Amino acid sequence: MILQSRIISIYTHPMYVCMCHGVTDRQIKQAVADGHRDFLSIQAELGAGTGCGGCRDFTADLIDDLTQKSLSARAGELSHAA
Ligand code: FES
What we know:
The chain is built from 4 helices and 2 strands. By secondary structure, the chain is mainly alpha-helical. It has a single domain, classed as Arc Repressor Mutant, subunit A. A hairpin with a 4-residue loop joins strand 1 and strand 2. The chain starts with a helix and ends with a helix.
């Protein structure tokens, strides 16, 4: 029961990625979904990475993961459509 509530907590609470600007993983996911596909675009949109810089690597990795998933999802959709 405790494990289940922890898992639910992980998926229901946003995680702060950039503490300097209070940017969460959900904001980054939404920005990627809105068409911001690289670090510079996310940086301009949300300010992540423009303070101390401590979040830059993680933010870039998260964007890479999200855009790869988007590409994979599109590839899957295209293969189903063919
Ligand atoms: S934690 Fe993101 S710029 Fe400092």
